[in-house]
Design goal:
Layout lengths: L22 H23 L10 H6 L6 H22 L10 H11 L2 H14 L4 E7 L5 E7 L10 E7 L6 H4 L3 H8 L5 H12 L1
Antiparallel strand pairs: 1-2, 1-3
Length: 205
């Protein structure tokens, strides 16, 4: 992904994740919220041609080196674009369970798949206000869970994001209102583990 950034097309219909995530939420989330991040990121970089050749990953990894005048915009809108792009790709109508190799990785790092799920849910529920919970790998290729505020992304901490859940209220409020726990538990059934495993394989092998 590089400037000018574009809103990605979803590989499934807006109603494909119903009843876990309803069509109206998906459409608003994608066409309004995500598009706003893309548009504002492009606007922030419009007057900085020296940065336009950088990938989004490169921008997020080197936030501290960016001009102070646009650093916050790239953090918020670039982070929002990256977060949502990963989020959409790791969702799918046919959820399920991770494959044997991924199960083994999760067991080595968290004890069992269920223990990983419990830890991930606790982080997601513990994010104060708006933010994300992430499964990520660090420089030593170890899996861990991040709870990050706003539109921060593990890339900003030198890690690789593998799977994230959006716990901003706009991601679930139409169906779940203030019941974040219900949303988080239901979300597992629409996780596209094939994409998660592709990301894990790309980073850890």
């Amino acid at each position: 992904m590089a400037y000018p950034f574009e809103l990605p097309t979803l590989s499934y219909a807006y109603d494909a994740l119903d009843p876990v995530i309803d069509k109206e939420t998906m459409e608003i989330h994608h066409t309004k919220h995500h598009r706003a991040y893309v548009d504002k990121l492009n606007l922030a970089l419009e007057k900085h041609p020296e940065l336009q050749g950088k990938t989004l990953e490169g921008l997020l990894r080197t936030l501290d080196t960016l001009p102070e005048s646009i650093r916050g915009q790239v953090r918020n809108h670039g982070g929002g674009h990256m977060n949502h792009t990963i989020f959409w790709s790791t969702l799918g109508a046919n959820g399920g369970s991770p494959g044997e190799q991924t199960q083994q990785l999760l067991e080595r790092n968290f004890g069992s798949f269920n223990e990983f799920k419990e830890a991930f849910e606790q982080v997601a529920l513990g994010v104060f206000g708006s933010g994300w919970a992430w499964l990520a790998t660090d420089k030593e290729k170890k899996l861990h869970i991040h709870g990050l505020p706003n539109q921060d992304n593990p890339l900003m901490h030198g890690d690789i994001p593998l799977l994230g859940i959006d716990v901003w209220e706009h991601a679930y409020y139409l169906r779940y209102q203030n019941r974040r726990q219900e949303y988080v538990k239901a979300w597992w059934s629409v996780v596209n583990w094939e994409e998660v495993e592709r990301r894990i394989h790309h980073d850890m092998v």
